[in-house]
């Protein structure tokens, strides 16, 4: 049976903890916005979604809450996730009664219950059919790796809530590791460091800005310093302090080490023939977290494997999901029998 029909607006959604990207078949990525929803606590109505809602974090009146409905790559608030998906689907389709078929990305380590929650939320948001694809496989497709070959390829996808590590061969995941460490855990580490070392309370957006500007996984050629403003815990008054990139590297050390350990553990569990392939094909890095300064170099130093960034780390999961839409249709047209679970990781 054909998974995708002709003449339909099939959609692929990379439902991330930090950002949601929407790929519409024939149009490409049409939406890339933060996974944030602002809710009016008095009425339960959605006040804003995406970029507009993110600007409200930490700045809303008591009656409005800016919520991130996903945590660690999975749904933490079902109703808010449903509302967010409905908004993005309607925005992508430019109509209120859109009922597309969806491919949704999920971390490789999610439970059956967590997968069911994603499917149910998408159906409740208006989709008429939902299939799941594992994020590392989507990232590999989006990065242009020849995953159908009998050859090992390794992908590391560091997202907002999880880090996915997978070895792929013959169109399927052979070995994988999913750790719930991502961009938000790095932000939390910065926040905790500022409180502990400087007695300064900072907001979530400030922590993210510090991570982006000063964060590094290995020593920098030239260390940086910036002035940070926040609320002094002892006096309760605004205060500014100077912090360095060396400090922030220390603040992030445990989380970065957890990601490195996940990569090394996956390599240790990889069959010898595929491990030999990876020594030649190397490790491909995807996701926003891999853009941290020195991250690729750190992975290379720790594993000895060639390490490269995907051409578009921030979007390759969404692009790969969108390419899967086209690929399934092409295979159906050609009369080939395909088994989605084995050939493309779709559930």
UniProtKB/TrEMBL annotation:
One of its GO terms (biological process) is cell morphogenesis. CDD domains: ASKHA_NBD_MreB-like. Belongs to the FtsA/MreB family. Its main location: cytoplasm. Forms membrane-associated dynamic filaments that are essential for cell shape determination. Acts by regulating cell wall synthesis and cell elongation, and thus cell shape. A feedback loop between cell geometry and MreB localization may maintain elongated cell shape by targeting cell wall growth to regions of negative cell wall curvature. This is Cell shape-determining protein MreB. Keywords: ATP-binding, Cell shape, Cytoplasm, Nucleotide-binding. InterPro entries: ATPase_NBD, MreB, MreB_MamK-like. ATP binds at residues 17-19, 160-162, 208-211. Pfam families: MreB_Mbl. It is found in: Cytoplasm. Forms polymers. It comes from the Bacteria. GO terms for molecular function: ATP binding. One of its GO terms (cellular component) is cytoplasm.
